[in-house]
Amino acid sequence: MILSGCLGMGLWYRESFIGRLEALRNLQRIQELLVSEIRYGKATLPECCSHIAERVPEPYRSGFLHIYERMRKNMGEIFGQVFRENMEDCLKDLPLTEEDKVKFLSLFSDNGFEDEGMQIRSIEQSKELLQQTISRLEKENTEKCRMAVGLGVMSGLLLVIILL
Fold it and tell me: How far is CA 56 from CA 11, 81, 144, in A?
């Protein structure tokens, strides 16, 4: 039981490393969809959120739908602020670090951009930051995953030997 528990803990750490990388790739895909909707679809930011909600899984889908609904009501709220609030709720349960969340949420400043070019530049800067993190994690993850499982098994064996 001790050995399998320690192995399970090592596998759990492995999955958390993989989960973070997967979540970062999803965020990067969302950024690509935003750029596509703005550049080629010529959609406003709230409309972009509505279109993107159709193409992304939960919890992102509900976040983008909430953004669209709040902006559609036209209560004088700034898009960047609404985006930040709703996306913070979506990202809170994902295996991301605070730094990852800040990089993604830096898409739109609180004062908002009316110009299509500025919106795209802002998204691409954020996308670049996430890409650097993804590249670094891809290099490190193979070794970290192997080490997490190996340490789990070895610590389990050590405990079993000590208890014998």
Answer: 27, 21, 29
Calpha distance 133→22 (Å, rounded): 12
Mean pLDDT by 10 residues, the chain (164 residues): 85 85 91 88 83 88 89 80 86 86 76 69 85 87 82 87 86
Residues 96-109 as b/e (b if ≥16 CB within 10 A, e otherwise) read beeebbebbbbbbe
Q: Which pTM does this prediction carry?
A: 0.79
CA 112, chain centre distance (Å): 22
Unique residue bearing structure tokens 């192995």: 7
Measured from the Cβ of residue 126, the count of other Cβ atoms closer than 10 Å reads 21
Question: Distance between CA 159 and CA 4 in Å, rounded?
Answer: 11
CB neighbourhood size of 91 (10 A): 19
Surface-to-core class of residue 163, CB atoms within 10 Å of its CB (0-12 exposed, 13-18 middle, 19+ buried): exposed
Using alpha carbons, list the distances in angstroms from residue 96 to 4, 34, 51, 60, 152.
Answer: 27, 21, 25, 14, 23
Per domain, the residue ranges of the chain are 2-163
